Amino acid sequence: MTFAKISQAAFYVPEQVVTNDDLAQIMDTSDEWISSRTGIKRRRISRSEATSDLATHVAEALLTKAELSASDIDFIIVATITPDALMPSTAAKVQANIGASGAFAFDLTAACSGFVFALATAEKLIGSGAYQRGLVIGAETLSKTVDWSDRSTAVLFGDGAGGVLLEAAQSPSFLAESLFTDGKRGASLTSNEQPLQSPFSDSSEADAFLRMDGRAIFDFAIRDVSGSIVNLLEKTGKTPDDIDYFLLHQANIRILDKMAKKIKAPREKFPANMMAYGNTSAASIPILLAECVENGIIKLDGSQTILLCGFGGGLTWGSLIVKI
Ligand code: ACO
Q1: Which residues is 248 bridged to in the sheet?
Q2: Which among 33, 69, 184, 293 has most CB atoms closer than 10 A?
Q3: Active site includes 279?
Q4: Is 248 in the pocket of ligand 1 (CB under 6 A)?
Q5: Which CATH number goes with the domain that contains 82?
Q6: Tens digits of per-residue pLDDT, 121-138?
Q7: Are residues 88 and 152 in the same domain?
Q8: End-to-end CA distance of the chain
């Protein structure tokens, strides 16, 4: 039987730092408002790098860390809601950029749950025995889809990318998963609607920008997402004590605080970095994971158990319990 394990993690963010004070120069907001409601202090915003450029940096870093060449990679999945284009996919561009000519590559769209959905998919690809190694990357340039005239959303998001190398292994490390979608509530978080525009179509309205019902999303995270984590722990006979770290999507510090309470786990087990990067959607969990590896909190030696949880547009949400 073949299993999959996470063997490396890496992240890359654009160089330009935009602070809350910088935003206050161009819109009616303040560091006090943004910090107190979201925890966010600054974010990275791309000047010229596309989503595929950010993802390519991550792919290269993963290969370097693992001392592998691009020809060792069987597949590349990029989770993103801000692809360079729908065609070719961002993953196909990464494949070309790193020269992984033997790898198949595709994008996966599940908003802020994208990385968790992609990792769950990749684990099955390797678990099938057909593939040995894959890159799973979350990458976003949300700055291009945010409405910069709407202060209620513009202050929340940032650009960045993170990812992991997934490799075949002898023993299981993906211990449990639960993935959900509720399309009926999709209207509470939308972006990049595409209008019908052929000469044969009725004219249709479409909003290109990211729009959000903040209150609805807040409640969704606290109620549905926390509940799904509690259920997954119960279903697998685990308690919060069995989890070393909960790596949750980095939307908002108040969401994180409340979710920790609902799950009844010590807040110290929930690392956070939205202060530095804002909400980077599909990139937020792998950036956090790679930072935790970099600063030694997560060791990647098979001795720890983590719970990864993404939640966002779709609505989508999902968790993985992984021995890492
Ligand atoms: N600066 C200053 N004032 C602002 C800003 C801003 N950037 N944005 C909104 N306001 C004002 C509003 O206009 C409103 O003013 P009013 O009372 O005069 O009408 C006031 O602040 C309160 O607005 P609310 O939207 O009620 O603010 P709230 O306290 O609910 O906080 C927030 C908004 C932070 C978005 C909150 O709803 C939230 O945390 N939601 C979770 C959603 C989230 O984080 N989404 C991220 C994307 S989704 C995801 O990743 C899953």
Answers
A1: 309
A2: 293
A3: yes
A4: no
A5: 3.40.47.10
A6: 999 999 999 999 999 999
A7: yes
A8: 19
